[in-house]
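Practice problem: predict the structure.
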Amino acid sequence: MRKIIVIGAGIGGLYAAKPLSELGYNVTVIEARERPDLGYPWYDSVAARTFSSVGLKVPEDVCIPKQVLNYYAPSGEGKIKQPDRAGKSLDVHREKLIRFLLSRLEPHCSLRFGERVTSLVIEDGAVKGVVTDKGRCEADLVIDSSGVFSSCRRATPDDFCLNDPLCENDYIIAYREVYSRVDVGKAPAPNVYLYPAGLMLAWVKSEPDMDGVDVFLGSYKEISPEEKERALAFLRAHNPCLGGTLLSTRKECVPLRYPLGVLSANGYAVIGNAAFMTKPFCGSGIEISLKAAKALVSVVRGLGDAPFTAENLWKYTLLCAKDFGAYHAAQYVFRQMIECLLPEDLDFLFTSGLFDKGVVAIASLDSGKYMKEVDVRAFYRGIVSAFRRKDILAVVKGAFTYALRAYFLTRSLPGKYDAKKVKEWKAKYDALMRAAPKTVAELYRASKE
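Answer:
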């Protein structure tokens, strides 16, 4: 019986483990943390049909109806309501989802907690297993679901085309906290603020399990106690429901990078945050990790008894690139434009009419059906206003042009695996994506001159 090892109890790896075991593989999940420590005790959103599309029927207590977010500029003005796919999206409790996925595996897979994978076993140009703090474990395929800081992925050989460095601004440091709720006659509005009080992002929304207020504070750098207090004061000024008693706190790192260009090599595949499978504009990789896991399972199923070579696993990269990778590459570029704008210019975009929820849905490449949600009159007024602000118009135009380049380059992956062609394509992809922040910022600076 062929063996598969899943490194880490990430959502994508845990989902894939069960159908892979049902295909006849001996599947082992190795997780560094103990079982009670898995998952985050908070809710993140997923799109409608996320679970049904991958054949999961989750317990009712895992999900609640989505809290549709209202986005605000740094000043707290210019509300833009987040699109909700037909009003059917959900907020998913991560910790409960992890527990559910683990419960599915117990009769089928070996689960090893409190065991840390220290390195991959690489022989003759292929991954042959892993080394843990308890010994060597051989496998025919290793699936890396160990998160954004995966040391195994970053230690792979150059010819795997997977060892991208973790660079500045590839992730944000986030505090996720629950505070007491002040009774103001209604539930907390789910409000998100871009760049308030010097941070990158902050939000306030309901936390139903504790009858409190869910607060998110995120920044590219460590948040000092003074910055944290300023951000909380800003949130309380705009959200009187936010009380002063801290009920729960957790600090995590959230990846916001563009996806890896290559997702597999000989005997090895990456999934979830280890492959940066989050939306580069708004994070949360639950939906994407599940989609990628389904794609990986379909590729393995199609291989039958064939070996797990880079060539045979290449379809996994192709499926992910066409399903979400190209969109996410474009979203990453779009985010660079938002991040480089001065607060007053971001305020303008939010209040000019250029960014209503339909335009935001299209810009974030959610779905073409949101074209009908565009307020054409407001958008026209915004265009008229924008012509009085040619600096902003220039950077918006430049960013969208660059985003299109990223989209089509991602979709130009070699259709068949050829090591030389893959390496050449990967070099172009990384060069384009790594240049995006600087290129967009230079456009913005030039527009101000």
